[in-house]
Design brief:
Number of helices of chain A: 5
Largest sheet of chain A: 5 strands, antiparallel
Oligomer: heterodimer
Order of helices and strands of chain B: HHHHHHHHH
Shape of chain B: elongated
Distance between the termini of chain B: 76 Å
Order of helices and strands of chain A: HHHHHEEEEEEEEE
Structural class of chain A: alpha+beta
Strand order of the largest sheet of chain A: 6-3-2-1-9
Number of strands of chain A: 9
Shape of chain A: elongated
Number of helices of chain B: 9
Helix content of chain A: 25-40%
Strand content of chain B: under 5%
Radius of gyration of chain B: 23 Å
């Protein structure tokens, strides 16, 4: 090949490359050009953009949790790989034991006057820089949220979301500055709170302007019965 | 009295929690379950996540994985049609996403098209390798390796139905050949065998189809 002369790739060739059918030898030449040729990059990107919606006909398949563990173990070797099962199992046990003991001591002296209709529901919302415990009082339909660790940045609020399996997140409000926030839930949430996920995101002051999470997920936890 | 007791228990509980936490070395923001995949789905949010991943934000990486891995896994599964290979490919894809997030430029690729192109390239490289084709490190290259596109080079964003509408203008066989190449990762050899035509004929067909598609896709502008 003569030096300095750039091969002209017609649109069908660019499409062949994007489609992945370009024969190997040609593909190598194409790739070599692509590295330095911005307009060729853009033409490929255009095909990629046009083709990508075809994946809409593929049904989503959730990969097994192991895959994420392996990826994280590779990328962040300092973090000891702990399987999701272990993580959840441990936390649920820790939560159940901790809150179980607490609930017992609190409840014991008052057991007689209190009608024990429902088991207490709790969740530990946990993330890298955030630890929040939540307990739910079914008779009052009130969620008490206690912040153990984590501070929002200036101009930010921590917003709490309830996510029932298969549903969109529902905002239940922003955490107040103090340690504990008591939030009365919408009646519609009452039947679905057990087993749902609580998540906290950082949002602009006063909470998400759209009613949907816009910030980073800072921590999540599952509501369990103890 | 009871209050003191409760305080003691709370402080014990906290210490217990922190010990468990240290023991487990939990660095990552999110304990996950499948319900989270609905949390973030719009392209702007995915773009924001990629931007945070570029800054090394692990929580954002985790959230990005939650929001997009089911789609990308469907891509690798379809092409590789082997669960364990598809899982390995998905691993490679997200390692690349982590490493290349800084080369993702808003105004260039739309975030899903960028992610899908990484997943497809990964899977197609693997399948060509598996089927005894050529293996070359260059094969692993894709556009995401290169510097971000200049802002002036904006890419036309397709409506998701455009490609379907334009494929429908092709003869059914030819449209299916394009789909087979894109979704199943079929090579010319495989397509030629499937449609029972010589390799060169297959290539001529497909190149013509691509030109027609391009015409159709541009005609809407």
């Amino acid at each position: 090949m003569s030096d300095g002369k750039r091969q002209v790739w017609d649109e069908a060739s660019v499409g062949e490359y994007a489609l992945g059918v370009m024969p190997h030898a040609e593909r190598l030449r194409f790739v070599a050009d692509l590295k330095t040729n911005r307009s060729l990059q853009m033409r490929v990107a255009n095909w990629d953009e046009n083709f990508a919606p075809m994946t809409g006909e593929l049904e989503d398949i959730a990969p097994p949790p192991m895959v994420l563990n392996k990826i994280e173990a590779r990328l962040f070797p300092a973090a000891k790989p702990v399987s999701l099962f272990q993580r959840l199992g441990f936390w649920q046990t820790a939560t159940a034991l901790g809150f179980g003991a607490l609930a017992l001591v609190v409840a014991l002296p008052r057991i007689a006057p209190l009608p024990v209709e429902t088991a207490p529901l709790v969740a530990v919302i946990q993330g890298e820089s955030l630890l929040v415990s939540a307990s739910y009082d079914a008779t009052e339909n009130v969620l008490s949220v206690s912040r153990k660790r984590g501070t929002e940045a200036a101009n930010e609020d921590f917003e709490l979301w309830v996510i029932a399996a298969g549903s969109d997140p529902v905002s239940v409000g922003v955490l107040q500055a103090g340690e504990t926030t008591k939030i009365r839930l919408a009646d519609a949430l009452k039947p679905i709170i057990l087993g749902s996920t609580l998540a906290i995101t950082n949002e602009p002051d006063g909470g998400s302007p759209t009613g949907k999470p816009t910030g980073t997920i800072l921590g999540t936890g599952t509501v369990i019965e103890i | 009295m009871i209050q003191t007791l409760v305080k003691q228990i709370v402080s014990h509980y906290d210490r217990y929690l922190s010990r468990v936490r240290d023991f487990l070395h939990i660095h990552l923001a999110i304990c996950l379950n499948s319900s989270h995949k609905h949390l973030m789905i719009n392209p702007v949010e995915i773009e924001q996540l990629i931007a945070r991943v570029a800054l090394g934000d692990r929580a954002a990486f985790n959230a990005l994985y939650q929001a997009t891995s089911s789609k990308l896994f469907s891509v690798t599964m379809r092409i590789l049609s082997n669960r364990s290979e598809a899982e390995d490919a998905l691993q490679e894809v997200y390692v690349k996403v982590w490493n290349r997030a800084s080369s993702f430029a808003p105004g260039g690729y739309s975030p899903m098209a960028w992610l899908v192109s990484i997943a497809r390239n990964q899977s197609i490289d693997l399948i060509r390798q598996r089927r005894g084709g050529h293996v070359d490190i260059e094969e692993a290259f894709d556009l995401a390796d290169s510097a971000p596109l200049p802002e002036t080079m904006t890419i036309q964003k397709s409506e998701s139905r455009e490609i379907a509408r334009c494929l429908a203008t092709l003869e059914a066989d030819r449209a299916n050949a394009v789909r087979g190449a894109y979704l199943d990762g079929h090579s010319y050899e495989e397509l030629a065998a499937h449609y029972n035509v010589p390799l060169n004929t297959m290539r001529t067909w497909l190149r013509r189809s691509l030109m027609k598609l391009k015409e159709c896709l541009e005609a809407r502008l």
